[in-house]
Amino acid sequence: MGEYEDALKDIEKTLGFVPGFMKALPKDVLVHDYALWKQYTLGETKIPGKYRELGGLAVAANIKCPYCILMHTAMAKFHGATDEELAEVYYLASLTARWSAMLHAQHYDWDKFVKEAQQIGEYLQKTAKK
Length: 130
Fold this sequence. Notes:
- This protein has one domain: AhpD-like, CATH 1.20.1290.
- The chain is built from 7 helices and no strands.
- It has helices spanning 3-15, 20-23, 27-41, 49-63, 66-78, 83-106, 110-127.
């Protein structure tokens, strides 16, 4: 049995069936990408699964991809994300996009922003209650 057939068997074992969007990929791409998808979506990595998926959801919201939003929401819930955490991510995604729009619209000086961001970080570290 070849790598492709092994990948299909693993997908079916893992997900209960082989989704059409995975079958639609070229065989070599599926073999390569499914292993990575499985590792970084379902496996253990340096970042806990719930946080990986909440981050993915924030990105998906900003690129306005309904497919990604649906999948990252489902995977975040699988990893234990609560409705309250999902609601917070929705806000955080909008916050990032909004501030990005405001900074770009101002043509804010990059070097000045770097210095100010560093200054904010240092001040917050210095004054944080530990």
